[in-house]
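Chapter review: from sequence to fold.
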Amino acid sequence: MKKTFKYIFALLFSTITFTSCDEDTINQLLGEGDTVEALKQALSIGAEAASNELGKEDGYLNDSIVRIAMPSEADAVFDVVNALQKNEAGRTILKALDIDEKLESTMTTLINRAAEDAAPKSISIFKSAITGMSIADGKNILFGANNAATTYLHDNTYSGLVNAFNPTITESLGNVRFGGYDANQAWEAVSNIYNKITDYKASSTGKLALAALKVADKTTYNKIDAIQAVNTNLADYVTGKALDGLFSKVAVKELDIRTNAAARTTDLLKKVFGQLDEQ
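The token string follows.
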């Protein structure tokens, strides 16, 4: 499967890599029909490979390119939590708030697990768009910009992918578990930190503690003062980030076959690239 994937993507991206080749030359080497058919196979196999790779456990979580971080307002909450750990005045507040110190890593794991659960759903949608590709579409991709293939897939599948991913991710957020939470429970706990901080700031004990913190660490005090409620729709957020990661992964695979000579691992792959090298 790996060798087949590399071969098919070589056919797709050889025209981009070797820009001195014109359209007539490529058609003479491969044939117009073969060129477009190879493109369809390349996109189909590449999309399936990316979907399956991301659909494995840790497919998103352990990949720095596609790993889904928490929404920005949740990051701001945990920035405060982490800052409170740095001095005694802050730790006093943290203890009073009774915040699970592992919640940040738990939440990150859970949203990536939900994305991994949904990733295989993309395969059939990708293949449907690829099957409908015309010869004109194929030529536009082959002789277009470096990201023409990914752009074609994005333009022709994104809305369908959203419709397929969102229900799956919504379900997964209630099913995937880690650290004693499912994702929805963890997200509720993240959201409630804001309420805890707000209520604590208004209490007499909290006012005294915050006054001490202001003296000890004014930067952290200001972060607490500026913290905002967590209002992100988690399913919509994870869906969008999961699809961003999916298209990024396809693009990475494309780039590798365009630029990595070591990817020419079969005789036919070497022959095709060799012909193009000579043009």
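Two observations follow directly from the output. The chain has one domain: 2-277. The longest strand covers residues 177-178.
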